[in-house]
Amino acid sequence: MKTYRIASIPGDGIGIEVVAAGLCVLEALVERDGGFRLDVETFDWGSERYKRTGALMPEDGADQLRDFDAIFFGAVGAPDVPDHLTLWGLRLAICQPLDQYANVRPTRILPGIESPLRGVGPGDLDWVIVRENSEGEYAGQGGRSHRGLPGEVATEVSIFTRTGVERIMRHAFTLAQSRPRKLLTVVTKSNAQRYGMVMWDEIAREVSADFPDVTWDKMLVDAMTVRMTLNPSSLDTIVATNLHADILSDLAAALAGSIGIAPTANLNPERRTPSMFEPIHGSAFDITGKGIANPVATFWSASMLLQHIGEPDAARRLMDAIETVTANPDLHTPDLGGTATTDRVTEAVIAAIRGRN
Ligand code: NAI
Ligand code: MG
């Protein structure tokens, strides 16, 4: 029987709660399917390890993950550790060396969930945001000099390479081509940023020549927030830089009902390294330990993981189970205006997987 090796990194805060729920759901799917197994190894990397040892993960952490088929990640961040240390010490320390350059973020309004946008229902908002995940504004270039002095300077340099932009553009066009509407919107800020963003636009045009059946247009990122809010059905696949897509995808999640339902995949599309699947939300200290974190984002991420490793039937079954559960407002967690707990939602999804509700 096919066995996949999965690295589980729950991390911090509600990451630990939702990954535990996600693993229970995956176990139920394996039982139900009977055609494959998951060999899950859990890594206790995160802020507690940092406080104990001075590092969020071992020096060779990314290498320890190379032989896995996929990585299942929770969230990282603690109230008493600076966010730039936790992000760079764990999440980016995995994404960057493993070259997970395509961050894919589907957003749609699931059954039973209400968008904060008036008159916008399930069919009206169905997007996939493709975020460049290896360079741009988060390339890690920059520094600080003369710390604390009046003349202190800090630089934060964006890096755009032809290779980096071309490969994300190709990924976005390919994804757009695979979706029924074959529609791509390329987001930049090429009026104010004259070099990297203008190159981004030029490369989009070059790559588009290989995808004659994809309709594409360009948007400036500020105007894009307006279009997402006022005309969501005019969009389908969206590609943007690391920073721009980071922001737009939080907006997308909110417009689709809650950040607690939004999933993401950090892909190495060539499959030279394992890809990583995680909810887009963070460790949410404000609700940690209360048992009310919405596990749906993590379940949806688990479905993307199954699709990626080659178990589309199980992926579909999980998505169907999620939608059966979200359709029932009694099974909504507080972020969706309900009173259900993480456990209650998890049990309901498992029941739906087993086929009895
Ligand atoms: P956050 O996503 O943790 O929380 C924002 C708001 O959304 C909070 O009110 C939270 O309660 C709510 N929320 C988030 N996920 C939810 C869920 N599953 N169910 C119900 N409500 C949910 O973002 P915030 O507060 O800016 O960051 C908290 C920590 O997480 C920081 O240390 C930050 O650096 C880290 N972070 C980590 C990320 C990652 O590991 N990928 C992503 C974003 C933030
Ligand atoms: Mg973000």
UniProtKB/TrEMBL annotation:
GO MF, any single term: magnesium ion binding
Catalytic activity, reaction form: (R)-malate + NAD(+) = pyruvate + CO2 + NADH; (2R,3R)-tartrate + H(+) = (R)-glycerate + CO2; (2R,3S)-tartrate + NAD(+) = 2-hydroxy-3-oxosuccinate + NADH + H(+); tartrate + NAD(+) = 2-hydroxy-3-oxosuccinate + NADH + H(+)
Q: Which Gene3D superfamilies match?
A: Isopropylmalate Dehydrogenase
EC numbers: 1.1.1.83, 1.1.1.93, 4.1.1.73
Name the Pfam families for this protein. Iso_dh
Q: Where is the Isopropylmalate dehydrogenase-like domain?
A: 5-349
Q: In which pathway does it act?
A: Carbohydrate acid metabolism; tartrate degradation; D-glycerate from L-tartrate: step 1/1; Carbohydrate acid metabolism; tartrate degradation; 2-hydroxy-3-oxosuccinate from L-tartrate: step 1/1; Carbohydrate acid metabolism; tartrate degradation; 2-hydroxy-3-oxosuccinate from meso-tartrate: step 1/1
Required co-factor?
Answer: K(+); Mg(2+); Mn(2+)
PROSITE patterns, per the entry: IDH_IMDH
What name goes with this protein?
A: D-malate dehydrogenase [decarboxylating]
- Origin organism is Mesorhizobium alhagi CCNWXJ12-2
